[in-house]
What we know:
Layout: E1 4-10, E2 13-18, E3 22-28, E4 41-47, E5 50-56, H1 57-60, E6 73-80, E7 83-88, E8 91-97, H2 111-116, E9 117-123, E10 126-131, H3 133-144
Parallel strand pairs: 2-10, 5-7
Antiparallel strand pairs: 1-2, 1-8, 3-6, 4-5, 6-7, 9-10
Amino acid sequence: xxxxxxxxxxxxxxxxxxxxxxxxxxxxxxxxxxxxxxxxxxxxxxxxxxxxxxxxxxxxxxxxxxxxxxxxxxxxxxxxxxxxxxxxxxxxxxxxxxxxxxxxxxxxxxxxxxxxxxxxxxxxxxxxxxxxxxxxxxxxxxxxx
Length: 145
């Protein structure tokens, strides 16, 4: 497997996003709240005259809420079904190559992590959990529906 992965930190955990799904990495400084939006939708932001729905990854995994009132936040921009999303992450680290196919995780991770997991892959920097971007965007409510 030669898939490239973007290594990010979410809720203090190093995980990987498929690099093919990533459009860019940005710093968000403005976040407009959206009344009555799903709890994991942190708000809206603009990037190059394009509106982004901002997803709080911690909230999507049901691990609390990311503090967004203190200013600039790192985010990964992805497109899903013609819509653009900014995924708020703690840190963007590096791009690495997957050295194996994803395999099922054989340990309890918690329901949020299990919902967004595509499996573990080996990389030069050690094993990483590959995150399903669509499941992350869907949030906890998507599984309940």
